[in-house]
Amino acid sequence: MSDYKDFIGDFKESPVEIFEKWFQDAQDKEENAPAFILSTVDEHGAPNARTLLLKEVHKGKPLFFTNYNSVKAKEIDGNNNVAMTFYWHRLGKQVRIRGKISKCERDISRSYFQSRAKESQVASLTSKQSESVPSRKNLETEYHENLIRYNNESVPYPENWGGYYVEVNEITFFIYGEHRLNDRFQFVKKGNKWDSLRLYP
What is the number of domains present in the chain? Predict the structure, then answer.
């Protein structure tokens, strides 16, 4: 039996399957399981990071939604290499993912947008994410005006809002151990296959 299987379990085709199982377990046991850090780089090569929520793993690709006019989206347009970091305290686990990112199909974005509560739809429609706003009052006024406007009708899907897929090419699993003797396993995609190895913690 390979070393990592004692801790992670077997998988058929991709270690992303392992991540999916961990993610499902985290959603049952962690207060903020979908939260992750998305890291990008700006036009000067400087790193940037923020916390987002993972919706699901769709056909082997992590999927999340955001504003396509945001700073993160502009950085993605300039460099589609990103990193994702998940930390689950109660489970004592961490996952780091690196890969290339791309927009998901528009019908998937539209369908998810329409499944959200109206208040969330209006918030996304109202937000000019990353742009300056004069005050909190201005933001709340715009939001409430839109709530009233669409009180009895459907909120139009904002074309500048949608999902991103991450095509995983490297994934590292951490299992925290006593005295910081953690277990750490890394999978790197080479063509259509995955190389695996144990790393020092």
Answer: 1
Domain ranges, residue 189: 5-199
Nearest to 186 by CA among 176, 177, 167, 199: 199
Evaluate if pTM is beyond 0.85.
yes
Helix (H) or strand (E) holding 111: helix 106-115
Dihedral sign for Cα 181, 10, 60, 20, please: negative
* Residues with a known catalytic role: 180
User: CB burial class (10 A; 0-12, 13-18, 19+) of residue 119?
Assistant: exposed
Find the angle CA(16)-CA(81)-CA(123) to the nearest 5 degrees: 85
Look up the CATH number of the domain holding residue 156.
2.30.110.10
Is the pLDDT at 5 greater than 80? The verdict is no
Q: How confident is the model at residue 201 (pLDDT cuts 50, 70, 90)?
A: confident
How does the average pLDDT of the chain come out, rounded?
Answer: 92
Q: How confident is the model at residue 1 (pLDDT cuts 50, 70, 90)?
A: very low
